[in-house]
Target: ATP synthase A/B type C-terminal domain-containing protein
Amino acid sequence: MDDLRLNVGLLRRKVPNLTSAARQVGLRPATVSNLCTGKIPVGRAEVRTLVALASLADCCLDDLIIRGEKVEMIETKIKTLDLFAPLAKGGTVGLVARPGMGQIAVLAELLYRFKNEAHKTILLMPIGEHQGLNDLVENVEIITNTIEETYERIVNIVIDQDIIFVADRTHVITGHIQQLQESLQEIGSNSVTTFLLDLTGEVVDEDLPYGPLETLWQFDADLTARHRYPAVNPLSSTSTVLEGAHLDQEHFVIQQKALKLLRRYRELRSLVNVSGMNRIPTSELQTFQRGERLEAYLTQPFFIAEPFTNKAGQAVSLQNTLKDVNKIINGALDSIDVSELEYIGYLQS
Model:
């Protein structure tokens, strides 16, 4: 059952307003969202849920559920993204954040990295004026103003070249993104990985602000307030790549251990904030300290921020991330001060 996943692309095409559609048939949008991103495995879903989704998409269960297809990961070399919510190649990723949480910085950094790795990067300009938009414009190769222009530019790109496409939620609401994805599928165009963000931050509390997604990056107010960037919440961000059949076993085991540690660390941290360190049971002190170190290690200097931070940007391979995180979890770095792990790349052996 581990090799089953929802056909997210089909749902996106057939049910553009999945949030309201799901509610109308008695489904919780949060459940649908978690099924789309793989946070809830298809094998554990209720039959009535799958039947209802198939009915909404006007398809049979065989079309709704994909078996045995490998979901390929694009390695970003940003530690927290690759470890907890890997980018699904050819899928759609949604960034969910309130203004000021650093979503534009993360996206600008990714565009900078992808452009230097020979991906074609395209930005569909949003409707209206938005703060921070220049950071995206400066780091993208192609800028378009309409969905028709975007389509033309994509189909004229070399067939085997991967494309990174960025658009604001304003184009999701109008149905333009759905239109573009349908048109590209009809002609079997290049591998297009789509990034959707909400520049207004108004839909941060919605369950499905962009419709079905392969990858979800949820930004965190607490991490932002403590300047732990990138402020992507490991506990609420997820991806279809995380499903057991698609994820390397070593990655899966370390990721699950890291999530367990961070989940308990956050609980203990709440206790410390209210009552101080003395309230942590002695048996939990080690957990708190290792969680603190792991959280610090997951911060990372960005290339686009070098002029402002005077810190060189760092690209960290997934293999180095896994090795370092495993060391932290197993206590090999218990004697290292937390500050030595903040805003570094990988640990030198």
About this structure: The chain has three domains: 4-67, 92-213, 249-341. The first strand starts at residue 4 and ends at 6. The mean pLDDT is 90.
